[in-house]
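Progress note, sequence design subtask.
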């Protein structure tokens, strides 16, 4: 019976340490972004989700990067197809030739692995 109590005590101690560690970890998670002045080397957008492309184009228009790659854009899609879905202010900024030249489209990806491979090729 003594060993049983020791085992239960050790298990409770381990569980308490785990919960304390979890609470500490959750407390370390930031609730607000650190800095809006972040500038990325490139913005990569994978097609297939709502508003992803619009958000990527908006980030490029707001000078958060100097390059945007849209993976899985499709063989028949062009930049104008994506710009039509953006707000007028973003569309106006990205209509400038120097900004349009910062947008690259990948047309080969058909799934997540294809997106990764296509993005890797673009980065090289």
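Output:
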């Amino acid at each position: 019976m003594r060993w049983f109590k020791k085992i239960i005590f050790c298990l409770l101690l381990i569980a308490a340490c785990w919960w304390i560690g979890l609470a500490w970890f959750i407390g370390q998670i930031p609730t607000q972004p650190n800095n809006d002045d972040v500038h990325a080397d490139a913005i990569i957008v994978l097609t297939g989700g709502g508003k992803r492309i619009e958000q990527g184009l908006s980030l490029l228009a707001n000078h958060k990067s100097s390059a945007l790659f849209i993976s899985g854009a499709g063989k028949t899609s062009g930049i104008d197809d994506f710009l039509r879905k953006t707000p007028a202010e973003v569309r106006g900024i990205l209509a400038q030739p120097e900004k349009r030249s910062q947008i690259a489209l990948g047309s080969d990806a058909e799934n997540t692995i294809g997106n990764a491979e296509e993005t890797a090729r673009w980065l090289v």
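Residues 63 and 74 are 26 Å apart (CA to CA). Work on this subtask will continue into the next period as scheduled.
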